[in-house]
Amino acid sequence: MLKKFALLSVALGLGLMVACSWISPKGSFAPTHPQALEQGRPTCSDCHGTDRVASTDKTFASFNHTQEFISNHKIQANQDPATCAACHAQSFCADCHGGKTAMLPSAKLGNRPDRESPHRGDYLTMHRIDGKVDPTSCFKCHGRSNNEKCTACHK
Amino acid sequence: MRCSTHLVLFATLVTGTAWAQDVAVSTTTIAQAWKQDTPGISKNLTPATEYVGIDATKLGGKDALSFHFYGWGMADLADQSYIGGKSTGDFTYGYVQYDFSKANAQLKAGRFTVNQGVGNEQVDGLSARTDLRGGFTASAFAGAPVTFRNYGNQDQSVIASQRNFMYGGRLAWHAAKVGEIGVDFLQDGTSPTTQMAPTATSAVYTRKLVGLDMKLTPWTFVDFSGRTVLDIAPTVAPAPGVNVSRLAEDDYNLTFKLAQNLSLSGSFVERNLFAYFSGSTLPTLFNQNEAGMFKATGAKATWLPVADLQVVGDVRRTDRESLGTTTRAGVDARYNLSASHVLFGVGYHNVNAFQVAAVDITTPAYSISHSEARAWIMAERGALSASLDGMRLHYSDADVNPNLNGKAFESAIVGSLGYRPKSNLKVSGDLTFQDSPIFGKQTIVLGRLEYRFGTAGKGDK
Question: How do beta strands B370-381 and B384-395 pair?
Fold first, then answer.
């Protein structure tokens, strides 16, 4: 028993040493953007030009908050949330993507019409149409957890 | 959540913030009031909601250690507005995080949202990520999923085998001056269970997904991103006519920046409902045995004729195998008068669904075509801010569509005024006038108090 434990400890130790030697020696991405940014959608390439982020080799321009970026931000957020976290607190994501939300994002952010809040108006009428056209767009948020309200009617 | 869990979380919150050198707390209090009149139901609704966020950094004097919390509570002062009771709340996240100075390495413990590859999950558990030599990145998480009420709001304990534990990982590689490509894995639940569909079904599953994701920018004028997800869970034979392909999703976007002020993008999405709906907790809406594929192709042009004006034209054709084809096309524009702190936007879209088959066999066929128009403006001058947001929808076939109560229009106008006496304090009020087919005319009053103290750097971003 003792021999097995000793062998396992040595194996784990060696494994850890090998794993640590694999870790990149490069410095981490800044946890907070060093300068305060103005309100509104930032254009990263205005300051960073054609530079690339050292850790991922993506261009700073690919983070410009254009309409395309806003529409497809999920890939960037899933690949490297640390770049989002340089400017955004996680509560920013929770405005729309919270597992359970107190009210429609468009109501909570009624004073921010510039934000791309989903489900404007009462949305109850419109959801019957959106659900028929593309139920997969509903599934992303309501198919697995955020469906307490759905079950009131869709039993 | 069990009482012991509350106690542990509360103790973590208190001790975590007490050890911190920098603590930032942000609170938002929202009070609403409106009268809801629908046939047979009349309600006076006055919910009050409190959001609290805490970011405590430099825990124990260490720059790398931080604590983050966010949650909300709501109480109805008159009639019940929320499903499930007159008071409710949510502990959205609360975790301790350690950021290493090298390799973008990070550890998290507590309740957090996982965003990696195929996973977008709220869990109580642990996560870790690090960059490796040779351009590789590895990340993994494990824990108990937070919310997974099944059909009929059955408690977790009723279906103990389901979603008691989930884990996943991602291995990615970035090529110099090209971008990043990753493979992902997610398993939800340690033993098979049924989908709990309303109709008898023997579909047995353990939610198990693998994915491939990429974001490639080989040149500054090209951006290609997207992902493919496969459902690899063991399953029994699906219902007749169901597409048994295990492809859950293809979702890709290609953007060309043709000039400094002009870009064109194309998108392609396909989702196989059998595989995509795997793991649904709401099978009445997202039933794996519902036959069909969903496909969408789209194009978008973004043009900045002058520095502060953005015009976006887009068209998207969606095809749902079981119902038909829909085309949505339109234009959005937003103008930023940065010198005078005024921002405004307009948009119009037409949704043509004339090729959609009858959506309800119990009623005469009707079209779900409609148009959407929106205009908004917001301005800030010193401590004052104001915004106005109006939208109007026009539905086709209002006389036949049983969901419209004979009403072809829906409109909403939201006006908001705000005052910021101090940089960390803002008071605002919204007044909403709505006219919709289901609720008719409504006037909704909302008051909002936002207060921050400490060194909040990212709280309102």
Answer: antiparallel
Structure tokens at B84: 């499930």
Q: Is B439 exposed, middle or buried (0-12, 13-18, 19+ CB in 10 A)?
A: middle
B398–chain A Cβ distance below 8 A for any pair: no
CB half-sphere exposure, B366, CA atoms < 13 A: 21
Question: Which residues on A lie below 8 Å from B296 (Cβ)?
Answer: 134
Cα B351–Cα B354–Cα B359 angle in degrees, nearest 5:
100
What is the pTM for the complete model shown? 0.86
Q: List the single residue in B with minimal CA-CA distance to A124.
A: B438
Residue appearing with tokens 């794993």: A19
Tokens, residue B215: 């974001």
pLDDT recorded at residue B200: 42
| Integer Cα distance of A60 and A30 in angstroms | 14
Q: Does B355 touch chain A (CB under 8 A)?
A: no
Contact between B461 and B53 (Cβ < 8 Å): no
Q: Cα(B420)–Cα(B353) distance, rounded to whole angstroms?
A: 46
d(CA B124, CA B121): 10
Give start and end residues of each alpha helix (H) in A23-153: 45-48, 67-71, 73-79, 81-85, 90-97, 105-108, 124-133, 135-142
Give the residue from A67, A71, A124 with the most B CB atoms within 10 Å of its CB, the best one to mutate: A67
Q: How far is B434 from B428, CA to CA, in rounded Å?
A: 20
Q: Which amino acid is at A129?
A: I
Model confidence pLDDT, tens digit, residues B226-249: 999 998 887 666 667 666 788 999
User: What residues of B are in contact with residue A68 (Cβ under 8 Å)?
Assistant: 223, 253, 255, 263, 265, 300, 302
Cross-chain CB nearest to A136 (options B271, B418, B437): B271
Q: Which residues contact B249 (CB under 8 A, 6 or more apart)?
A: A136, B227, B228, B229, B269, B270, B271, B272, B275, B276
Contact present, B186 and B117 (Cβ < 8 Å): yes
Chain Cα centroid distance, residue B52: 20
Of B132, B286, B411, the CB nearest to A139: B286
Query: Within an 8 Å CB–CB cutoff, is residue B51 touching chain A?
Result: yes
Among the partner-chain residues A79, A133, A136, the one whose CB lies closest to the CB of B180 is A79
Strand partners, B268: B252, B297
CA distance B402 to chain A (A): 11
B275-328 pLDDT, tens digit per residue, is 888 777 777 788 777 768 899 999 999 999 998 899 999 999 999 888 889 999
Q: Which residues contact A142 (CB under 8 A, 6 or more apart)?
A: A150, B282, B285
**Nearest-angstrom CA–CA distance, B357 and B370:** 16
Return the amino acid letter for B107.
Answer: L
Q: Which residue has the higher pLDDT, A81 or B342?
A: B342
Interface test with A, best of B209, B269, B281 (most A CBs within 10 A): B281
A window 74-113, beta carbon within 8 A of B: 74-82, 85, 87-94, 97-103, 107-108, 110-113
The whole-angstrom separation of Cα B58 and Cα B65 is: 6
Identify all chain B residues contacting A89, using CB atoms and an 8 Å cutoff. 53, 55, 68, 458-459, 461
* AA identity, residue A67: Q
